[in-house]
Every structure is written in C-alpha cells, then in structure tokens.
Amino acid sequence: MRTNSYMKTVLKKIILFVAVLSIFSCSEKKDNFNPAAWVDPQIGSVHGRWFFYTPASLPFGMAKLAPHTNAYGSGGSWAPCGFDDRHNSIEGFGHFHEFQIGGLVAMPVTGKLQTTPGTLEKPETGYRSTFDKKDEHAEPGYYSVFLKEYRIKAELTATERVGFHRYTFPESAESRIIFDIGHRQGESSGVIEATMKLSGKNTLEGTIETYPEYLKFCDPEKRVKMYFVIQLGKTPVSYGSFVEDKTSDGQSETKGIGNGMYINFATKKGEIVEMQVGLSYTSIENAKLNLKTEATGQTFDAVRAAAHEKWNEKLGRIKVETKDSINKVKFYTGLYHALLGRGLASDVNGKYPRHDGKIGQIALDGNGKPKYNHYNTDGIWGGFWNLGQLWALAYPDYLSEYIQSNLDFAKETGWLHDGVAAGAHSNGVQTNCFGLMIAATYNSGIRDFNVEEAYQIAYKNETGYKDRPFGSGKYDLAYFVKEGYIPSKDTTIANGWVFNFGASHTLEFAYTSYGVSQFAKALGKKEDYKKLTKQAGNWKNIFDPETKFIRPRYQDGKFIENFNPMQAWRGFQEANAYQYTWYVPQDPAGLIKILGVDLFNKRLETTFNESQKSTFGGGNGIDSFSGLEMLYNHGNQPCLHHSFLFNYSGKPWLTQKWSRMICDEFYGAEPLHGYGFGQDEDQGQLGAWFVMASMGLFDVQGHAAMHPTFQFGSPLFDKVTIKLDKKYYKGDELVIETKNNSKQNKYIQSASFNGEKVENAWIDRKKLTDGGVLLFEMGAKPNTNWGVKTPPPSMSTSK
C-alpha cells in the first residue's frame, strides 16, 4: 500500500503544476491560473466507489475511462470496486462508469494469448499486468501507466462521448488488444447478452445488456443497454473471439455472456497504436455518430489538451488564493469530484434512452443542436447539502439541465425518479428528494423550465402514493400522508433485502415536504402550502418526550422497546437515532424549542468533542459504513449539516470551530486518508461539502426556503472569487476575502458585505448572487458577541 506524507503531496503538486503549465502554456491566462494542476485524482482512491476514479473523462461526460484493478466479476450492487490505490496490477481499461452501469473493457498485451485477467493475488494466472506507482500518472482528462508485464505504455483521454486510447508497444510478433464485454464490471451486475463483431477492417462494434442489482427491485422489467463502435489505428492481421478461457481463432463476431474478442498484430519497438471508442445508450448508429462528430480529425494530444481546457473552465469558475498548498489541492480535488459523476446519457443529436424502451429526442435549437443534455444519475440523497448548493452557485447551467432531465422522465412516466440508469429506475436509497431539489432550484432563481409542470410533479412526489412505482421511492409515503408518520415495520423487497426505515423516512419526507411547500407558497397555491406545511411538521410525531430522541414507533402508536439511540439500522437508514435526531433541517428552531437550548447545545457539543477522536467518522476503519454507530459520521449523508447547527443555537463560533476542524482532519490529501479513511465519497457529495465549507458558506435548509440563506462557517482561504452566470444572476462575481486568516485564526471577529457590517452568522443568498465582496476578519479566539443577534430563518420562525 502506498502512503504519502502531506509534504510529499505538496511537492508532487508543485512539480505537476509546473509541468502542466509548460505543456499547456499556450492556453494559460496571464496569471497562470491553472486549477486542473491542483487536482490529485489519487486522493481518496482507496476503497472508492465504482464511479469515483475515472481520470480520463470530461466534466459530467459519458465516456469515463479508467484503469481497473478489481472490477471484473464484481458483485454488482454498490460496494466499492473498480480501482483501488493499494493494488498493483491492472486488469484492463473500462469505458462506462455510472451508478449501476459498467462495461466494455480493453487490455493491450503481448505474448501468449490469455482471455481471463487472473486475480490480484496471482496476476500471472491471466492477462493482468503489474505496474509501479512511479509509472502511473493521473490528472483531470488524462491517465497513463506502464504495464510492466508487456512493456506497454497505455494512455487514455476522452471527449464527451468518445474514449481515446494510445498504446506504445514494444517489438513483438504477438501484440494484441483484448476486449471483454460479457462479464460483470463494477456496478453493472450480471450480463444478459453481449455482442461484438468486426464490422470493417479497422472497426468493431457491439452491444452490452446488463441487469443491475438495483433494477431487480426498482424496475424489474428493465435492463441497461450500452452500445459502442471502435475505430482502430492499425489493421489487425488476425482476430478471434472467446468465452471465458475457450478461444475461437478467426471468428469475427461473438454473442452471449462471459465473452469477448481479441485482435492481433505485429509491432515494432516504440510503435504507437491508437484507438477511438464511440459510446451511446441508444444505438450503434448513434455511437457511430458520436464517434464521427467528436473524433474526426482529432489527435490524441489535441483531445488531451482540450480536456485539460474544459476542466480548467469548469474548475476555474471558482478561484481560491492561499499559501496553503494542501488546502488548495483538497479544494480543487473536491471540486473535481463534484463535477465528475452523473454523466451524459444523451447523444450529440439529442437522442436519449426513455423509460419505456423507446428513444427520446431533446428539442433542437436553430442550429440543429440539442437545447440541453440528458443525464444518468444516482439519487440526490443528501445532495442538497453540498452538490445542490455548489451547482446552483457556480454551475447553474448544469443544474438546470439536470433538473430538466428528471422533468422529461416525469413527463414520460408520471413520476420523478431518484436515480436513473440508461432510462431505468435505479433508486439507491428508496426515498426521493428530487421534489425538494426542484423547489430549491426554483428558489435559487434558476427557472428556465416549465415551472407549473415542475411544481405539479414535485407536489405529487410529496403527496402521491396511489399506484406509485417502487423505483420512484417513497414506497411508504401513504403512512406518512395518512397517519403523520411511518411506523416501525420490516419491508422485504424483491431481492430479499429487508428495510425498516420508518423513522428516517418520516424525517426526510417532512423535510422534502417543506421544500415543496415553499414552492407552493411562491406560486400562490395556498391549500397545497397548508397541506405540505402540516406534513413538514410530522417529525414531531416520532419525537419521544421521555428520552428526547427521535424514536421509531409502531403502527399502534407505541414507541419501540429496548431503544438504544446508538443502534444503527433499526428505523434509520445508514445511521442511528442520535444522528437522525438532528435531521430537522427545515426547522432547527423548532428542534431547539422541543429539546431546550441547553440540552440541544450540550448534546451537539458532546457530539463534536467526542467525534474528533474518531476523525469525525469511523476512525481508521476502511469501510463505507464505519461510522454508523457513532455520534457523528461525516462519511455519510445524514450528518452533513450538524456542524452548522450551532448558528441556530446561539453559538456560531462552534460552527466555525468544528466546520474548520472537519476540513482539516476528516479530509486528507492521500489515497487512503482522503475522505475519511475509505468512506463513501458518493459522486462528489463529500468533495462538494469541503468546497462549500472551506469557502465559509453552507445552508442547513438546502435552499428549501422560498428565500434561501447561507450560514457562515470558517473560510479557509485568503480570497475566493466565484464567477456568477449572468443568465441567472445579477452579479458578475462573488468575492470572499479574509483578513488575518491562518490555521490558528479560525474564528470570525467581524464581517461585512460590500462595505456594510454583517451582524448575523447568515446572509440572504440573493445578496451574494447579486455580486460583491464578503469580507471576514479572523482571529484566534471566538468572538462570542458576533453572529448571535438573530438566528438564521427557520420554518417555525419565518413568516
């Protein structure tokens, strides 16, 4: 296993920064602002999720190329796999990396033909190749590695929908590329059928159909279909197909499972063989079109340079200035992860996979280009505390398209999804927070969609339970709407998993009801507003006045017996009662009132004093769920707002202290200690949290309020400049500056915005997006008189 000290990381980033500046100097601005050079994709790459490590890709791209160390034959589902920095052998390079989607792996080799990859423990039993970490390089948009067994340098880059490979071979009469299409890869789960054929002397094409684990209970009649076309830069001298380890020389096509193909050629020393792979979720014809449109006339180096520029444009929308190189690396790596997942599902012509198995068509503009894009996505569970806020602030153009994708799905099916894979429901948490996301997007001033249609489907998401498909989530919504809470009871789903999440679902549905209630209020829908506001208060129905915890209760109204607030999974999804009792983001003031401010603060202070001892999560345990039975678990979504609750309880300096400590200690700059220790950096969730918290901005309500606010934490940087999109916002840029900031000076002494004093620990979001300068004076000791005048708005204190 590789371990890096912080100083080694700093040195590595400085060297990379200088190198990339020299490579791409022609495109640099005068101030040499090159944020992509501060991204280290290796951070957190131990025990990462399937979609976590895809360096050769564009922001939100379809083609996400990556090396695999443990993807072949994986268990599917959601468990971490794909690439792990502790491993030292590669089994191939994959193309599709989305939630519940994976397939098409290529591996360049020489020598004896082998058609299975072997194992991590015994790579020599297959076509795997070992590699040295010193011969591996990853940056946004590019990856390279030297395969020791074959003396091949492999390089990868990508456009939006095309993967580019460049292999530098040694002299060999037995050079070849192996294509695996018929095995589970990452989260793909079982392959139903895979086809591939040599369709021209230099081209191959094929299809892969899989049955992912989550579709089996979310959308059992559906499958995920992938299409590809491969353009080779060298004509094979021979070829063949295989099923497992049985080969068929000269066979130009294959169909079935466990299968693939290989192409053979002789190479000279240093000979370069290039390959471009067009991808699609709709058809081989559209894979060809994507390939033609994005690859014609392109060279590998030109595509790599363009990828670098596209990453710089996205990352460069936020510029941080600091002498702390580690924090700069952590910031841009976190921002990179927030822009990596939830990728394109639509083709260059606007075709995309519909839920009914047909092909959808996005409307075209006057130039014949799609007006927006369609996306695959995991659920947005917890995304309102990080991704939603970040996208709305700096990437409203993407957020608008992301919302429109779900609205198109809802227009087709009548229901919002909360996770979709190539047109099929793939709800990972069996709830659905997308109504809230739509409302928060509207509340943020992003409204370039059909608002009335959006409202109606969001309202249905919070109140509609009749004939609701399981894949849409909220399978237990009827209890919530009719009885005011969801009872404690086991639910067994189609694949045998047993759920008992009544308490956490009650809290979540109350919160999302609040978001849509604010949408209703903004549109003047008074009766809807009343109904949803009542639902938003349902959290009180499972508050136990004896223990003063949220406590699951049975359908007869009795609270569960033998209650242990630290017990995970009993009524709470991926958490416990101690963690979920704080889950009233719509109304922290209401929670403070029912607990009493003294108990509220005592518990919250104990939470963080104790949790620092375990690095604010599961300690050094390499496990996505290692913090589930702790007081606080930053490695999972339900806890991410906790440190900002002190702003509501009269102690904003403790929000400043603990949000800073989490940034410093939970987040690292190493492959193992990146996002905790092997915890769940779930499609940018934790990276986006760091980005927001390190800028000193966060909204506990997740922009659910009709007039959203940002609450303040402890900004890390000397200066942050955020470009504001003039299509959506009045201002050109928002600048956040600090004076006297340092590791010791973590406490806000005073604040001002555009020269006017800010007395509270929060500010109206619209003021910030109108543009200007937010200035913080920092110090080593808390200013207990600042920020306490008026708490942030809360459901029970707002008009």
UniProtKB/TrEMBL annotation:
InterPro entries: 6-hairpin_glycosidase_sf, GH-type_carb-bd, GH92_a_mannosidase_put, GH92_N, Glyco_hydro_92, PNGase
PROSITE patterns assigned: PROKAR_LIPOPROTEIN
GO molecular function, one term: carbohydrate binding
Alphabetized Gene3D superfamilies for the sequence: 2.70.98.10, alpha-1,2-mannosidase (1.20.1050.60), alpha-1,2-mannosidases domains (1.20.1610.10), GH92 mannosidase domain (3.30.2080.10)
Subunit structure as annotated in this protein's UniProt entry: Monomer.
Record has Nuclease as a keyword: no
Protein name per UniProt: Putative alpha-1,2-mannosidase
UniProt feature coiled coil, ranges: none
PANTHER family reported for this sequence: PEPTIDE N-GLYCANASE PNGASE -RELATED (PTHR12143), SECRETED PROTEIN (PTHR12143:SF39)
Residue ranges of every copy of the Glycosyl hydrolase family domain listed in the record: 286-779
